[in-house]
Amino acid sequence: MKKESINKQFVKGPEYIKNEVRFKLLVTLLNFQNDIKAIRDEFNIPPDGFSDDKTSGEWYENEIIEKTDKIISSQKFRKAKEELATLRDHAEYLKREWELNDKIPLFKMRHRKEMLGKKYRLPANFYEDEYIGLSAYIIRNDVIPPINNWLIQHDSYPHDEKGTAKWLAIKTYAPLSQKEVKDAMDWLTSLQKHYFPKEIIIDSRIKKQFDRDLSIFKELALERDKKPTKRKIYSGYLSFLKDSGERKKWEKLHPNCIDIGFDATTSREVARRFDITSDAVRQAIKRMSTLIKNLFGDEFIIRH
């Protein structure tokens, strides 16, 4: 049995040490070694695993990838998939799907690792990862336990593309210590900035007076809607047309439209209703406009 491939520069944390103890003890069990031998025989792996990356890579390409591609591209397999799709009993569907996938080397290896992991009560991170845990031991005879008992997952597409995730989640494989919880949360906080779209991570803190500001905002909208007789442009589009020639050209093309904002008269009426100053009304609208801009974008701001 080769010496474990552990980076000597790596500082072992308490969770890693626990996983390492579990793994080192596991490989001393005769039953476990018999199970490993059976898997290696089934997949044409040498009795002591491969000695280097080159030979293990060639084995993976020939025994796993090529044979998997050959099976799934066959007419027999496609027909079995079609028959599977016609099943209505969910339990029967899962059973038949497992049996069908177990004929494919890629899925068969995953099945064997999962069955072995469950047999010896291993956390799932020992058999789900393709490079450490049971994978490394079966293929290379290396004892490489998981560093952590947690993993941060995301749905970023293309994979790892900045700003494309709709969700991030912490996946735990065992009860976490306080340190692991802190480490996981620190990583999550950092990765949020990378994976979430910038529009979502913009600071959009809600002020304490939000309910009052919202009421003012709605009252101003009601008052404003009573006044215009022409069709309204709520976005304040004309305010973007700095050039007077462009503004006149737009007004000529749209004679039935008028750019409406919150005028001073409306602000004073609402201020009296809320028993506050006109300046307080303007500040409320400013806060609401900033919040709308941060949450939904510039085009939805009602100019004032």
Characterization of the model:
With 304 residues, the chain is mostly helical. The chain folds into three domains: 1-146, no CATH class; 148-201, no CATH class; 210-300, no CATH class. The chain is 58% helix and 5% strand. It has 14 helices and four strands. It has a two-stranded antiparallel ribbon. Strand 3 (231-233), helix 12 and strand 4 (257-259) form a beta-alpha-beta unit. Helix 11 packs across helix 13 and helix 13 packs across helix 14. The longest helix has 20 residues, at 53-72. The radius of gyration is 32 Å and the shape is elongated. The N and C termini lie far apart (76 Å). Mean pLDDT is 82; it is low at 1-8 and 228-237.
Following the backbone from N to C, one meets helices and strands in this order, namely HHHHHHHHEEHHHEHEHH
Q: How many runs of DSSP E, i.e. beta strands?
A: 4
The geometry reads as elongated
Query: Into which percent range does the helicity of residues fall?
Result: 55-70%
| Number of self-contained structural domains | 3
Helical stretch tally: 14
Give the mean pLDDT: 82
Characterize the largest beta sheet: strand count, sense, and whether it forms a barrel. 2 strands, antiparallel
Beginning-to-end CA distance, first to last residue: 76 Å
Radius of gyration: 32 Å
- Lateral strand order in the biggest sheet: 1-2
Strand content: 5-15%
Class by alpha and beta content: mainly alpha
